[in-house]
Amino acid sequence: MSSSAPPDPRVFHGYSDAPTHRVLITVGWCAAGAFGLFGLLGVFMMGAPSDPCDPDGIGCGPEPTTFGAVGVALLGLAVVAAGWSLFWHARDKRYRFQPPPNWPPVAPGWRPPPQWSPPPTFPQAPEGWSFWR
């Protein structure tokens, strides 16, 4: 005698969680932090005292304004990277749950929590139904 387990509701209904872009968001925040840190170091190096040196002298390092310019450029990249993360985060929040027509209605703006499964009593969604818009 063989008994089969009931099908997984997520597979039976074809449901999947909302699309997410966690990797892109994380990479953006990490890049913003790194660019911000090195940018601040560059700006602070501009004000660091250094030994006087002839403008065309041998063995002189870069001008302090060079450190400042690089620091400001890196701070600009930090702002761009943070904007990148905020863009993908806002895009993830833009997805709206759309239940199939044969399911009970849901409150406007309701989003299933991650790893949610439709109850097994719900009818099967139509073929190719898109749960997220």
Describe this entry's structure for a reader:
By secondary structure, the chain is an all-alpha fold. 46% of the residues lie in helices and 0% in strands. The chain is built from three helices and no strands. The longest helix has 31 residues. The chain is rod-shaped and about 80 Å long.
Overview features:
133 residues; mainly alpha; single chain
Rg (CA only): 27 Å
Overall average residue pLDDT: 83
Largest beta-sheet characterization: none
Secondary-structure element series:
HHH
Helix run count: 3
Distance between the termini: 45 Å
Stretches where pLDDT falls below 50 for ≥5 residues? none
Number of DSSP-assigned strands? 0
Helix content: 40-55%
By secondary-structure content and strand pairing, the structural class works out as mainly alpha
Shape: rod-shaped
